[in-house]
């Protein structure tokens, strides 16, 4: 089937791109590995809406917006392939391979909008490999999909809006939250004040932030957290912590970690496009222009996969990418392009200014960002911080050299869970302007694939 554009991901950016494409008469194919559209932000929201409606309740306004987006996406003239896991994208994005119901398909792509979203920043702590430790996002997904929270006594640890939101959602669902340990403290708010004037232009975003800060559950809270270790033999038994206000221990059965989110760059790195280091957000991200276009023509990266700005900005970037593609195909004039794009580009600038405030407030302290001693950094290969430090001392100055000496990053997760921490260890001056080494190399397949599936692949020329 000949498509004008292939959209990878059906989160806010991908859905907005597909809706925009449909409105301009473009043939769009959307691939997503989940059984329903929504992405992580609006995962299982249709299912939740039905549960709430049966109970005589409704969705919060912020989630109702997501439900409306999904409805418009489903009503659009878009071909949506769910449970489709993209495992390869050729250099420049001209060919895409994906798994669907056990079969592999390879299709050509005239234009691509990659909207892979983001994932939670992994911060290795002592004991984070124990049963009972999971990310706050995983706990939130469990709650969204099943309607049931994590069982037992729960401690949430880290920083970021999602940490506060998950704490509130779990408490509202009847979970036993016994502690909320945050790295954020008064000093972080003070340091962020220079960004407040620009952030005031995004009143809705600030209002949502204030609600998160003021509506946290009535549980024991610790601020200005500087160190933490998860204690237990065969499972989680508690958390030892140290903050600027003192130290302590909280008994618990589960620990939910969250230290913000970073772009998922597997697809963009596999496609070979240029990336740059974002000093404010401390992560690698693809270099995109005002139209979300990468260094490869007609390969766009929209949403948080191109830089963390949130779901409202994701929708704007998805629409912008399609406008550029439609203009190149002659579907809209120069005048229409400028008219339609101007408010979206202004909106992105406004939200980017507000994001600087958020990034400064929710900043992971260096004492937690760089693991040490016997802390397991690479859980796949069980490589400790001490082993990485020893390899670095013997001359391993990049992730490739670390792989050779320690096998860090060579497990099933493809270095997604350990590369950021390993990079911080070998670049201690990263917060003083020292540029980190290039990110880990990504090679296909980025999803598990059998030899049989590869041999029987359906290849469309």
Automatic annotation (TrEMBL):
<feature type="domain" description="BFD-like [2Fe-2S]-binding">
    <location>
        <begin position="376"/>
        <end position="426"/>
    </location>
</feature>
<dbReference type="InterPro" id="IPR007419">
    <property type="entry name" value="BFD-like_2Fe2S-bd_dom"/>
</dbReference>
<protein>
    <submittedName>
        <fullName>(2Fe-2S)-binding protein</fullName>
    </submittedName>
</protein>
<dbReference type="GO" id="GO:0016491">
    <property type="term" value="F:oxidoreductase activity"/>
</dbReference>
<dbReference type="Pfam" id="PF04324">
    <property type="entry name" value="Fer2_BFD"/>
</dbReference>
<dbReference type="InterPro" id="IPR051691">
    <property type="entry name" value="Metab_Enz_Cyan_OpOx_G3PDH"/>
</dbReference>
<dbReference type="InterPro" id="IPR041854">
    <property type="entry name" value="BFD-like_2Fe2S-bd_dom_sf"/>
</dbReference>
<dbReference type="InterPro" id="IPR017224">
    <property type="entry name" value="Opine_Oxase_asu/HCN_bsu"/>
</dbReference>
<dbReference type="InterPro" id="IPR036188">
    <property type="entry name" value="FAD/NAD-bd_sf"/>
</dbReference>
<keyword id="KW-0560">Oxidoreductase</keyword>
<dbReference type="InterPro" id="IPR023753">
    <property type="entry name" value="FAD/NAD-binding_dom"/>
</dbReference>
<feature type="domain" description="FAD/NAD(P)-binding">
    <location>
        <begin position="4"/>
        <end position="304"/>
    </location>
</feature>
<dbReference type="Pfam" id="PF07992">
    <property type="entry name" value="Pyr_redox_2"/>
</dbReference>
